[in-house]
Design brief:
heterodimer, A: Methylamine Dehydrogenase, Chain H, 2 domains, 5-stranded mixed beta sheet, 8 helices, globular, B: 187 residues, membrane (chain B), transmembrane helix (chain B), transmembrane (chain B)
């Protein structure tokens, strides 16, 4: 009676074989967009047909629009504008209670450099951080929802232009200052620049669970101006490097006066050492920040001379070198991190500035790369084949060169005046080496004219072969500075906000809707659903809200359509108010009903066939 | 004096009882809705004890045509289904152990009646939901009765109704209940 053994074995083998040969384990769309680019025309390379998706997200700063621009690469289609530092009526950002508080009354920001959170020096796709150069703020955008999760103001700063960049496991988001300024923004005559003004680096921590920032500590530096910076990787993981300019201490007409010295400095900081010392209590509390003076912590700060007024300094993918771009000196300088550490070990210092030991340029510098006629190098990106890519602002081109030899492999014109460029995963430990986007400041004649001021432009360049190829030019609103390109599958968005009955102020069924009055406060616990508002299901008109003039009104609205992309808007006529609730979201709108009268309310975000009917009335009884 | 059922028949009935109980853990029936804006489809999935799938979304959309909202509460038989199935399983198990051929006919009879009643009940609900539409609904539709199996078109939706895993297990249980008839055939 052991016959069942061969029979069962046969069945199992059959199922296994069928699974191996016929099962489809692939997920999601895959088609021509994911194929190799060889043998494709430029048009085919960027064409992503309906039903397929781009291979990459590009998260681009929106400059002084204060927004994050989200693009798909290689199609270069704009996917979304995410408001970060700027109110946005289209999404109610800055109108509803939570985001209004987060913005803190500011109506703009100047977002320059996004930084995606990293794990082991690779983008992990969880959050993207943003700097506000104008108002000393830092923001985090949750990439599950593409909503701004938190904004924090940083004291003592003079514009965190040299951020945002993260250490290799997002231990810190680093925000160095652009302008030196008396601490706390206090009054001090510009004649006292050298004594009273300070440059501050904010080391910010972010709790990914609570989605809240915390100012870890601040590093007090000489009153230079700090420009683009980077955090080390692997061997250099404990260090950050920053470019400086205005080591002349010019206090007026910086264009001329901050461009006099032939050499400025790159500053090396050991953030881990400083963190330890701060934990040991070696800091001074200034305006609520733990401020540490690195010159008092031996081994935590060094300077290296560098070609004048550099803009960018970027660690190579393996973390062994960092490349500075001269901006005003037309060359890229490759520095060896190992040689720098050797000089430190041997205490081989040429000089001391403000108590900062200066390392010998000749010993730490590995090579200078100076392609003829290439002017205004700004910023370096990398590929997977040991090459670096530099944008040349003045000569309007991108230059590809070999890091090991300095050999220039190719040059390609861009239109015009590129600031940063962004390569696919191009500042991580493992760049992809297929695409580079040049973020150009001037478009001039590239597109149909829209008047004296034109859009900026983004140019997609295929870098998979030795010879670079310009594939596509895309207009963009002002004004991207830096962008990062991340593999699309690293970002995991949620389709809806999950129903959470315990969420404060949420209401999930029509019967539970109600209007409560507490003194002169009126709280509406309402729902939005296709295609109606219900403020109080038991009232004669469930979508009518009557209050008295002067009442403080709180509209807590939950969108109970738990269906992807069914967002409801809520606009109140003549009250300058509009906000939205995304599927499953609860949001509160707070206002004082100071105008008496009758004000239609309607759904502003097209939701359904009867969207036009999705409306109600706000009635404000005169005093 | 009825003949005793063979060991094979007894085993078959035990398997039938086990399958009946197993079917409780799987969905029995489903309906999938497709529309231009829902290419991925919306699901109603019916387990013997609960509804699952995109019930809220389907209810939300159905209110446009005035269909009554449905939920577990709208089907009073749902809480009893599992007891009925377990009851039937116990009866079949007992028949298996008692090994009486006459009782076998009773078991098959009960199973058949249960199945017919179940399908009648479904048909009744489908008719009720499809025909008793609120006359005040914004979109007026002629009353309709979705089929128990197969395709139907309602406004912009194409629905596909189908029996699924649990129902197939029930079918297997029924076959196992029938096998003794063949095993005990007069030779």
């Amino acid at each position: 009676m052991k016959n069942w053994i061969p029979a069962a074995t046969g069945l199992v083998a059959g199922v296994l074989a069928a699974t191996v040969f016929f099962a489809d384990f692939s997920s999601g769309p895959s088609g021509s967009a994911t194929n190799e680019n060889a043998n494709k025309t430029n048009a085919e390379k960027v064409y992503v047909p309906y039903g397929e998706h781009d291979d990459y997200y590009m998260l681009s700063s929106g400059g002084h629009s204060g927004q994050l621009f989200v693009y798909g690469v290689p199609s270069m289609r704009k996917l979304r504008t995410v408001p970060v530092f700027t109110p946005d009526p289209a999404t109610g950002y800055g109108f509803d209670d939570a985001t209004k508080k987060m913005l803190g009354g500011f109506t703009w920001g100047d977002f320059h450099h996004p930084a995606i959170s990293e794990t082991d020096a690779e983008y992990d796709g969880k959050f993207v951080f943003a700097n506000d150069v104008a108002n000393n703020r830092i923001a985090a955008v949750d990439l599950k929802t593409f909503h701004t999760a938190d904004i924090m103001s940083m004291p003592n700063m003079g514009g965190p232009h040299a951020g945002t960049f993260v250490t290799q496991n997002t231990e810190y988001i680093v925000m160095p200052t652009r302008f030196s300024r008396p601490l706390g923004g206090d009054y001090a005559s510009l004649d006292q620049f050298e004594e009273k003004y300070k440059g501050i680096v904010s080391m910010v921590k972010f709790d990914q669970e609570t989605k809240k920032f915390d100012l870890g500590y601040q590093i007090m530096l000489p009153p230079w101006s700090y420009d683009l910076s980077d955090a080390g990787k692997k061997v250099s993981g404990d260090w950050i490097v920053m470019t400086t300019y205005n080591t002349e201490f010019a206090t007026t007409n910086l264009e001329i006066n901050a461009s006099q010295n032939d050499r400025d400095y790159i500053v090396l900081l050991n953030w881990k050492e400083l963190e330890k010392k701060v934990a040991d209590g070696q800091f001074e509390e200034i305006n609520g920040a733990k401020v540490i003076d690195p010159t008092k912590v031996k081994g935590s700060i060094y300077a290296i001379p560098v070609a004048k007024s550099p803009h960018g300094v970027d660690f190579t993918p393996d973390g062994t070198r960092f490349i500075a771009s001269g901006k005003l000196a037309p060359l890229m300088t490759v520095f060896s991190f190992e040689k720098a550490m050797e000089a430190v070990k041997n205490e081989d210092f040429t000089d001391e500035k403000f108590g900062i030991p200066v390392l010998p340029y000749d010993k730490v510098m590995e090579r200078e790369v100076d392609p003829p006629g290439a002017l205004g190098p700004l910023h370096t990106q990398y590929d997977d084949k040991g090459n670096a890519y530099n944008t040349m602002f003045i000569s309007s081109e991108v230059i590809k060169w070999k890091i090991d030899t300095g050999e220039v492999i190719d040059r390609i014109p861009v239109h015009y005046s590129p600031g940063h460029s962004s390569a696919a995963e191009g500042d991580t430990a493992s760049p992809d080496g297929n695409w580079l986007v040049s973020l150009n400041k001037i478009a001039k004649d590239a597109f149909l004219s829209v008047g004296p001021s034109h859009p900026e432009s983004m140019e997609l360049i295929d870098i998979s072969n030795d010879k670079m190829e310009l594939v596509y030019t895309n207009p963009v609103d002002p004004e991207p500075h830096y962008a990062q390109i991340i593999k699309a599958d690293k970002i995991k968005t949620i389709p809806i906000y999950e129903k959470d009955e315990k969420r404060p102020n949420s209401v999930w069924s029509q019967e539970d809707t109600r209007i409560e009055r507490k003194g002169n406060e009126v709280h509406v616990y309402g729902i939005a659903m296709r295609s109606k508002f219900i403020f109080d299901a038991k009232s004669k008109r469930p979508d009518e809200l009557t209050v008295k003039q002067g009442d403080k009104v709180f509209i807590h609205l939950t969108n109970i359509d738990l269906d992807q992309d069914i967002t409801h808007g809520f606009g109140i006529m003549d009250y300058n108010l509009n906000y939205e609730v995304q599927p499953g979201q609860t949001n509160t709108l707070e206002f004082t009903a100071d105008k008496a009268g009758t004000f239609p309310i309607y759904c502003t975000n097209f939701c359904s066939a009867l969207h036009q009917e999705m409306s109600g009335y706000l009635l404000v009884e005169p005093k | 004096m009825s003949k005793k059922l063979s060991i094979g028949s007894m085993l078959s009935l035990i398997i039938a009882a086990a399958l009946l109980v197993t079917s409780l853990f799987f969905p029995w029936w489903g309906m999938k809705f497709f529309a231009p804006q829902y290419p991925e489809g919306l699901d109603i999935i019916v387990y013997p004890y609960t509804l699952a799938g995109d019930i809220d979304i389907v209810n939300g959309l159905n209110h446009y045509i005035g269909m009554t909202e449905f939920s577990n509460e709208s089907f009073p038989e749902l809480p009893y289904m599992k007891y009925l199935v377990i009851g039937l399983a116990i009866i079949i198990l007992m028949i298996g152990f008692l090994r009486k051929k006459k009782l076998l006919y009773v078991g098959i009879g009960l199973f058949t009646i249960g199945g017919i009643l179940g399908i009648y009940d479904m048909k009744r609900w489908l008719k009720k939901f499809g025909t008793e539409l609120d006359p005040k609904a914004p979109i007026e539709l002629d009353p309709f009765v979705p089929p128990i199996i197969g395709e139907n078109t309602i406004a912009n939706f194409v629905t596909n109704s189908y029996f699924t895993t649990g129902a197939f297990i029930l079918g297997a249980a029924f076959i196992c209940t029938l096998i003794p008839l063949w095993l005990e055939r007069k030779k």
